[in-house]
Design goal:
With 125 residues, the protein is an all-beta fold. The chain contains no helices and 6 strands.
């Protein structure tokens, strides 16, 4: 019995290797089916089982919502690779919060905060 219901969907997806021996190869493929836990992708030859990947799904949107980015990115790991297709399980990633860049004194543009020296000798000028 499967944990998640699978849906037969033929969606365009870019699969980028983020680890493994193959380097950082990119595959432009289509899905065979998708679930909340992963996806089955059609490919003549895919990444080896155990390879970490990033999947970018390209979804069509309503023309009135064109300003919204129709791409959805997931991280995963190849769990099965066979002739003609391979399966990816989605994995959760944890990212540390990135501090906001400092704002320049007058323009609000990224820069060095007021009172911090940018000179190598530490003098303000």
């Amino acid at each position: 019995m499967r944990k998640h219901k699978r849906y037969d969907l033929n969606l365009p997806v870019a699969v980028m290797e983020t680890g493994g021996r193959g380097g950082n190869r990119v595959f432009l493929l289509r899905t065979e089916n998708v679930s909340a836990g992963g996806a089955l992708l059609r490919a003549d030859r895919g990444p080896a089982a155990g390879t970490a990947v990033r999947l970018v799904f390209f979804l069509q949107t309503d023309p009135l919502e064109a300003f919204v980015d129709p791409r959805h990115t997931f991280h995963g790991r190849v769990v099965r690779s066979e002739s003609g297709r391979f399966a990816v399980v989605f994995v959760k990633t944890h990212q540390a919060a990135v501090p906001a860049p400092a704002q320049g004194p007058a323009t609000g543009a990224p820069g060095v905060p007021r009172g911090v020296s940018t000179r190598p000798d530490g003098e303000r000028g």
